[in-house]
C-alpha cells in the first residue's frame, strides 16, 4: 500500500514540476510578446515621427527655374505630411495631393521613401518666403524652409553704346549677376543671329562658368561689324550693347562715347556760335 501511495506521489510531483515549467515558459513568452507589441506603441522611445535635420533648409533659385524643398520624415507610419505657406497659412499639399488652385505647387514622394518634396514650377519673386513641412501628430510638428527667388540678369561692362575706330578691336565682357548656379551656357548674338565663328576670322569667345563671365573679342573691326550685340545666359535676362564702328572722319562721336553726349556737344557748339554772331552784330 505504501508503495502504491508513493508511486502516485511521484506522479503528482512530476505533474506539478511540468506544469510549473509550462507556466514559467508561458510567462516568458507573454513578456516577450508584450516587449515587441506594446499596448501603446506610440509611447515607446523614438516611435513618434521626427524630422531628419540633414536636409537643406535654405534654397535660392532664379525666376522661372523650378524650386525643390526636400523634407525628410522618419517613423511616419500612417501620419500625413502637408506643405503650408507661412505668410497666409495656405495649405498647398496634403500627402501627394495638391490643395490649391495654383497648380505650380506639387508634392513629390516615392513609395517607401522618407522624403516629401515640394516642387514649385516657374517660381516668381512673390513666391519667396517660408514654407512649412507639417506632420499630423498630436500635437502637430513642423519644420520651416526658406525659399528665395531672385531675378538673374546679365550685364555688359561699359556704356549701352560703344563707338570704336575702324581697325580697332571690339572687346565685350558679360557678367551674370544674382544666379545661385553657374549658367549652363552663355550665347552671344549680333542682332537676332548667334555669332558664327565661320562668318569671318578674328572672333573668339571665352566663357568661364564658375565666375559667370563671358568675353567676346572681334579683332580689326570693320563698319560691317556695327550692330546690336547681346549676351544671353541660359538662366538669366539678357543684356545688349549697340556698337558703332566708325571711320576716321567721325572723331567727335568716338571722343564722347555715346550719342547723347555727342548731341550735347553739338548743342553747346551751336550756342557758342550764336553768341559770337550776336556779339559781332552788336559791335
From TrEMBL:
Alphabetized SUPFAM superfamilies for the sequence: Immunoglobulin
Recorded coiled-coil stretches: none
Annotated Gene Ontology cellular component terms: neuron projection membrane
Source domain of life: Eukaryota
Signal peptide, first to last residue: 1-25
Source organism of the structure: Cardiocondyla obscurior
Keywords on record: Signal
Keyword NAD in record: no
Name of the featured protein: Ig-like domain-containing protein
Sequence ranges assigned to domain Ig-like in this UniProt record: 49-136, 139-242
GO biological process: synapse organization
